[in-house]
Write a structure and sequence with these properties.
Helix 3 runs antiparallel to helix 5. A seven-stranded mixed sheet has the order 14-15-16-12-11-17-18, sandwiched between helices. The chain has a six-stranded mixed sheet with strand order 8-7-6-9-10-19, with helices on both faces. With 494 residues, the protein is an alpha/beta fold. The chain has two domains: 276 residues, Aldehyde Dehydrogenase, Chain A, domain 1 (3-Layer(aba) Sandwich), CATH 3.40.605.10; 190 residues, Aldehyde Dehydrogenase, Chain A, domain 2 (3-Layer(aba) Sandwich). It contains 16 helices and 20 strands. The protein binds nicotinamide-adenine-dinucleotide.
Length: 494
Amino acid sequence: MTVSQTDARLLPEAERFTSGPVAPRGAGDHQGEWIPTLDPSTGREITTIAACSAEQVDATVRSAHQAFTSSWGRMSPYARERVLHRLADLIEEHSLELAQYDALESGKPVAFVEAIDIGLAVEQFRYYAGWPTKVTGAVVAVPDTSAHVYTTRRPYGVVAAITPWNFPLCQAAIKIAPALAAGNAVVVKPSELTSLSTLRLAELALEAGMPEGTLSVVTGPGAGAGAALVAHPLVPAISFTGSEAVGRRLATQAGADLKHISLELGGKNPTVVFADADVPAAAAMAATTAFFYTGQVCFAGSRLMVEASVLDEVLQVVHDHARDLVVGPGLAPGSTMGPLVSAAHRDKVRGYVEGVAGSGARVTTGGNDIGGELADGFFFEPTVVLNPTDDSPVASEEVFGPVLVVQTFRDEEELLRRANGTSFGLTAGLWTNDVRRAHRLADQLQAGTVWVNTYGDFNAGAPWGGTKASGLGRDCGPDGLGKYLETKTIWMAG
Ligand code: NAD
């Protein structure tokens, strides 16, 4: 592991958003509290954002409802398609600016953010721009042949989108693009740690020709603005991505209020390597996905399960990868791994690693905060923990840091039992050159996505979501559109 420092400058247009308080979009003038957002690479304050009050959230939702009933919701599908394409173009034109906000606030390497996160956001808008013109209903055969019975698919109205800090713009796009394509208006509540790119997106949406109120952003802590948004009576549908704990709370509330809710939650994702696989390729990918974005990724391959006979070969590759990472600030051009998002989160991650002491497991590399020139930021070494027990917190819980657990297995039956023995079910990686085994295990691994001889691939057209405690419902693809529509049946007498 080496260390990089930043000499990078923000673009002039990005300085507008980082040199004074940043107001919400669509919530009117903000008179109340402002809260700081911090740069996790340095611990310094970037700017302040509004902690929106319940009254502001109410005003925003009402204006979104107005847009739904009078402008966006009445626009022809062809017109919606054009606006969504224009927004995709604008995101692409502003990709570095948007990437700088996310890199600054989350600490993720800016080059990766621009290529991956912003690229995926553009892909979402382009993919779903193709859908408004393809939403159709059906004619239903009934016994009375003189009756005409048909269905239409209607948007809900105002969708509340609640997003996490680890993929700020990308997660916003994954929710906003299909919800808007379906004809809904959207109010987004981004994470209070990473609001800037979503606020800028709402400006770009206006520039793209979206009517006022169609896409609004309320900011502030989840318990304030977020809670007021999901509880609002004019919000019939909630799309949430975040932690299991908050997801469960919102699901309980949505159940009580009879609101539609979809949940994209956490994971503890096994990467399984059989001895018959391309072991160097498998190990290299396993290390990449464990430390990518400092492990702060829902689909991080944080649990590597290796057939015992190839353990040494795999460990060698993983350790080499950890050694070659260039750790540094998100804006530093050479960084390949940034900090953790906050000091509190770093303490939590360190706690998982310290928790293995005396258990028989071994920390084979890393395990410490990074000091020196990076001491003011929230950096933690890429870390490998060898052979913790399945029920230990580091092996069974979502650590959300650069901590790779490595375990061995002897046969397929043992592997399946243990890989499926967690509460989560978001993703799994499977490396084998035996095609029958690949099909068998792809079917039996309990996960929303199973990658075979690859890992981490993502596309707007491919349904995405988790089983068990990893979530309810799917983003992306036709499923991702369908959750923002409901079916209406029209029964006309003959
Ligand atoms: P979090 O649950 O702490 O916060 C997520 C969002 O919910 C934030 O905007 C927060 O302000 C808001 N919130 C918190 N309390 C709320 C309340 N009472 N009412 C309404 N909103 C509230 O999650 P996080 O730390 O921001 O994100 C990390 C988590 O997100 C991890 O568990 C990660 O696995 C998960 N995640 C999942 C996916 C996926 O696709 N499955 C993708 C990215 C992140």
